[in-house]
Amino acid sequence: MARAASPTASSASASRCPASRTARSRRWSSSPSTAARPSGRTCASPPSAVGASPEGGARHAVALESRLLKEAPGMPNALSVSRMTGNRSTFPQWYQAINREADLSEVSPVRGCMIIKPWGYGVWEEMQRDLDRRIKDTGHVNAYFPLFIPLSFFAKEAEHVEGFAKEMAVVTHHRLKTVDGKLEVDPEARLEEPLIVRPTSETIIGDAFQRWIQSHRDLPLLINQWANVVRWEMRTRLFLRTSEFLWQEGHTAHATADDARAETMKMLEVYRAFSEETLAMPVIAGEKPENERFPGAVATYSIEAMMQDGKALQAGTSHYLGQNFARAQNIRFQSAAGELEYCHTTSWGVSTRLIGGVVMTHGDDDGLRLPPAIAPRQIVIVPMLRDKPEDAEVLAFGEALSKQLSATTTLGERTRALLDTRAQRSADKRWEWIRRGAPILVELGPRDAAAGQVTFMRRDALRNGDKIVSQAMPLAEFVARAPALLAEIQASLFAEAKARLDANIRTDIASFDALAEYFGAASEDDEEGEAFKGWVRAPWSRPTGAALETVEERLKSLKLTLRNIPLAQTGAGGSCLFTGAPAVEEVLIARAY
RNA sequence: CGGAGUGUGGCUCAGUCUGGUAGAGCACCGCGUUCGGGACGCGGGGGUCGCAGGUUCGAAUCCUGCCACUCCGACCA
Fold this sequence. Notes:
Layout: H1 11-15, H2 25-29, H3 32-35, H4 61-67, H5 91-101, E1 105-107, E2 114-116, H6 118-137, E3 141-142, E4 148-150, H7 151-154, H8 158-164, E5 170-173, E6 176-179, E7 182-185, E8 190-197, H9 202-212, E9 221-230, E10 244-254, H10 257-278, E11 283-287, E12 299-306, E13 312-322, H11 324-329, E14 332-334, E15 340-342, E16 344-351, H12 353-362, E17 379-383, H13 390-406, E18 409-410, E19 413-414, E20 417-419, H14 426-436, E21 440-444, H15 446-451, E22 453-458, E23 463-464, E24 467-468, E25 471-474, H16 475-503, E26 505-506, H17 512-523, E27 535-540, H18 545-556, E28 561-562, E29 565-566, E30 585-590
Parallel strand pairs: 3-9, 17-20, 17-21, 26-27
Antiparallel strand pairs: 1-2, 4-8, 5-8, 6-7, 9-10, 10-16, 11-12, 11-29, 12-13, 13-16, 14-15, 18-19, 21-22, 22-25, 23-24, 27-30, 28-30
Helix pairs in contact: 4-5, 6-10
The protein binds one RNA strand of 77 nucleotides through helix 1, helix 4, helix 5, strand 13 and strand 16.
């Protein structure tokens, strides 16, 4: 073992020092800024001390990947956690490590598709439950439409077709046959009309709307569907972009443009509130520039969230479709005046991508941190069992605690507590729950049982420097305070992310050159570590058509995109960053997922 | 689809240059000692080295083709 700088380290301390072990560490070992960094936690030797030692510690990958990273050098707006997660060059590895170590998801044998593991799916279920409530509270009802859409349906809206045609899964046959012991597609079983696997459901739902709507009394028609969709993506990443993903898609029809526009904005606001209140993920809501519109839409709005590497994630969209789909599909109603008119429709959706957003918003060196509102288990009790008589008391105490906690109400729901009685070692279980992001972790030992007290850790504030922070209080007090404590964790995660977002949107960039300097300089760095860059909010003249395309081209050279035009405008004047013309509003510019 | 890289037990990797019949740590199983900050000892189980051909007495290693994954582009929730 090449642990040159700490010759005294015992194997025991080495085992607690996983940072010293991956081959990755060699990548940074020559970096001057790494060597000086004090080792984290119980780790005795600096990362640079380690060479080719192949010792393992795979389960610690989240911690070890990130601990080795460079500090963001001299960045005024550097994230508080940028030394681990804010480093652009290692962020993808960190992201994948969390997916693996927090048991969220894994790539499947099917190209471009993922397996959402129970813990990750549990998070999705909590999201679904909360958002479904919000969707129903705004008057919508759930329904389900077919996975397969006849090609002819899909073909009706020209822009829509153009937007999705390149990423379509198509079903052409309905039978297999065995030839020489091998299964083959039966050429005899060709479908008369190919079916596409839905990439979105405007057309199949529009077809139903066309039949369901006759009178203005049938409007508004407010439908939502929870479903999977398929878009044949070239490049996929867990949760953020996969060929198949889960989502919710709302589809509504209205009598007037005003009503439909109001619906579009209402659902955008539902998404904003859901994202900020439930996911603790601050967002900026705004309108997409015309070239970023949903295919077939008159206007598209989005909420954009800032990830810990500074990139923007489109976290939800809401579209005003005008009468485009109504005309294409003959969705008409008879008005009070007796006239036949086309409906105005909307659609809006969020997907399992949000899970990726939560990971990249709240994750840290120790793994995932889940906002209590979406944590499948909010309080996990790990009993310290030692194969001794007092184990029974510890377990009994734990069961009582779990039961009492489950009788309380947190954030409007029954508190989700778990007594983890699995046979694994307590220490392993503790770290597993830390990596998974359980908001509160209770460690229950004989001393607690005897004293009738609860010792616990908050995942949002797990460490003070290198030390794990735990606190203790009497059972009754803990049970009484747990809901408030969880609410506090929810709030603190949001506050942390909100502060990061607010601190990293620059509004002082007044020219394209300045923009290029800010973003361009970093891209010339090698992969060793690009400094954190946030977003830029800049005045612009809202160019359209070819002029807008030119803007996009120039931004592309800097790997930048227009995210949205925030609804909340400051009214600041100035001249357009791109055209020099008088600005009419501000636009958000960022690198994006 | 272009550029770069990687495929070796569950995980992270060494071994490939210089062919000789597969390793480490962690994880897993058993026993014992431990146990409030990622325990220790002893003993085990698990890999046709991404796939298919080829060269060779012999291939993880050399050659050819293919596939998959990761990162960077193009495309997108």
